[in-house]
Write a structure and sequence with these properties.
The structure is a homodimer.
Chain A (H helix, E strand, L loop, with lengths): L7 H8 L3 H9 L6 E3 L2 E3 L2 H15 L4 H10 L7 H54 L1
Antiparallel strand pairs in A: 1-2
The first copy, chain A, binds a DNA duplex through helix 2.
Keywords (chains A, B): Coiled coil, DNA-binding
InterPro entries (chains A, B): DNA-bd_dom_put_sf (IPR009061), MerR-type_HTH_dom (IPR000551), MerR_fam (IPR047057)
Protein name (chains A, B): MerR family transcriptional regulator
Chain lengths: ~130, ~130
DNA sequence: CGTTATGCTTACGTTCACGTCAAGCAATCT
DNA sequence: AGATTGCTTGACGTGAACGTAAGCATAACG
């Protein structure tokens, strides 16, 4: 059962990260596990944030960029300038991501072409070798 | 005029990188400028490779991953096992990139939703403030 | 009740991708 | 000739994102 609170080990197993990583993210204020005595217990909020963190990392964003993005996902924020800024940053990130997607599309096409050229080239080499062996 | 050979400074201006970066990439065997005495001169091949390097970096690939990919773009390679391996690696990268594109698409959607929620939320906060000021 | 596992803090180490001097050579301007 | 400019090779420094090891507390197991 997916309990509401998870230990650090459960988190590590669930998300395939190390304890060090989770403590590091807490130090950087990306997640906020509660304490039971000295131990950390991670909430569903932490899990949602961690999911977004790992996703962001795969797009090459820095932890600091991700942290700012996460603020946008905090629906308890009633500070107008802060929310305004979060939205602004969110728009920038969105632009980044759309640009990246477009570039990625181009790069995929290029790589596909290069691959089919490479396969053809390889076949040519193999044929040459076979002919030379007769 | 775009000469065939460019100095390090011309390269830096053209690609918005530092000399250190170009020397570093040469040391890592990502580019192979020729020498005029002691000075580096960059060919169109170096420029093509640099373009691919900078693109790869934007997708979060490491320089080592990029180096392997660049080998695939070397059409002078007549070594069958090497070409075979390059194609293999290229296929893996292609898969990575397609996965990343799909994930990116999802993330963009999520961020868009979060942004429109945020904008709505912000408007609510502003309205509340206006009402409280009466 | 001792051992094994899990967790904590503190702190130094590591990898990647460069940045930042220092010191020296070579061509060019004055 | 002397100074400036551009490029070179070391070599040490840096920030991000953790890894790793030491030393201690607590908790679960047999």
């Amino acid at each position: 059962m997916t309990q509401d609170l998870m230990t650090i080990r459960e988190m590590c197993d669930a998300f395939d990260v190390t304890p060090r990583t989770l403590r590091f993210y807490e130090a950087k204020e990306l997640i906020f596990p509660v304490r039971e005595g000295t131990r950390r217990l991670f909430t569903r909020t932490d899990r949602a944030r961690l999911k977004l963190i790992l996703r962001g990392k795969r797009f090459g964003f820095s932890l600091e960029q991700i942290r700012q993005l996460l603020d946008l996902y905090d629906r308890n924020n009633r500070n107008i300038p802060q929310v305004t800024k979060a939205i602004e940053l969110g728009r920038e990130r969105l632009d980044d991501m759309e640009r990246q997607r477009d570039e990625l599309e181009i790069a995929i096409k290029g790589l596909r072409e290069q691959l089919s050229w490479g396969e053809e080239h390889l076949q040519t080499l193999i044929n040459e070798t076979a002919k030379a062996a007769e």
